[in-house]
Amino acid sequence: MGRDFDALVAEADAEPTHGWDFSWLEGRATEQRPSWGYQRTMAGYMARASAALDIQTGGGEVLAGIPERPPLTAATESWPPNIAEATRLLHPLGVVVVADEDEPPLPFADGAFDLVVSRHPVTVWWEEIARVLAPGGTYLSQQVGPASVFEVVEFFLGPQPGEARASRHPDQAREGARAAGLEVTDLRMERLRTEFFDVGAVVYFLRKVVWMVPGFTVEAYRDRLRDMHEHIEREGSFRATTTRFLIEARKPR
Question: How do beta strands 51-54 and 72-77 pair?
Answer without folding.
Answer: parallel
